What does this fold into?
Amino acid sequence: MPVNLEAPGPLAPVAGVRLGSAEAAIKKPGRQDLLVIELAAGTRAAGVFTQNAFCAAPVQVCRERLGASSAIRALLINAGNANAATGAQGLANARETSAAVAAAIGCEPSQVLPFSTGVIGQQLPVARMIDAIPKAVAGLQADAWNAAARAIMTTDTIPKGATRTVSTSQGPVTVTGIAKGVGMIYPNMATLLAFIGTDARLTADATKDLLNHAVAASFNSATVDGDTSTNDSCVLFATAQIGSRDVDAADADYPLIADAVTAVCIELAQAIVRDGEGATRFITIDVEGATTVDEARQVAYSIAHSPLVKTAMFAGDANWGRLAMAIGKAGVPGLDPARVDLWLDAVRLLEGGEPHPDYREELGSAVVAKPEFTIRVGLGRGTAKTRVWTCDFSYDYVKINAEYRT
It folds into this structure.
């Protein structure tokens, strides 16, 4: 069960966005597994994608199309098949299916972005997808965000969505987003897909800059298992339906819109970790006192990716020696253990690299028995800090991934 996470309530429609899903039996019959998102003419879109060298065919197509133009009219998302490690045929399949969407809504194929998630190394069932696309288009609705969140799920146990509305000088602006992903989750944007829409009239440059900022504060601070997917994709689309003045980074409305987009992305990123495969603990890792943010993140991820730390957390075992090990192996040049402080929530474990005199085992055990808590590290080297979210490793993580293709 996800950690302190429930299915989202009604997700607010975004002017200029319609969504429709259909069953294409991509991996298993009997579920909606294909989604079309139609965007109004004039939409400006930006994307951030995986840094995995074995990136999927749809990632390659999206990069090419967004590199040529931000004027996107539709997204096509399928669950159950990643269309990764599929070679030239995989690229052809991504282009063919997105061309079918273009034909169905009346735009150019280059204005359609394809996305896939699921099993790696298998070709898309193109015929079934092309048959399902008109059904998805026929069902396009403005208020179908919740159904869309379900359609993109793979091993997720719960749909993930978030929404915000802010008042701007040009009227109320809505930001709504959906995401999927519970395993193979690690930054380098970074299996994770996220789609965030707003009806704000952002310029193309502002849309791109805002997305980069929001991803750095959200998806690139979330990790489940340290594996970067071949398919990670996050897209922000601004439909320009509110107001008549373009909003760039210098506009007074920009911070309001940026805060709303970032808040939606953080909520989605945390939801992904809370629903991490087999997760029973949601863990915030705060590292402070570093010389640089990169150094702080180096320590945070050393803790977050340690199987020994993650399994101890699953057991509710306050084995702080594993935390000290993970800090020490992070590879920070010149790290002085005698300046390191360590806490579990407000319980101090180490002070100046030595066990705190007031620490007792039952205090630490009470913290790690909770469904969510914070590991805080002070490095005593500078003023830089970072925050990362992760989860534990349970028996179910192994079971889910051992049986992933069955």
In short: The chain has a mean pLDDT of 93. The first strand starts at residue 17 and ends at 22.
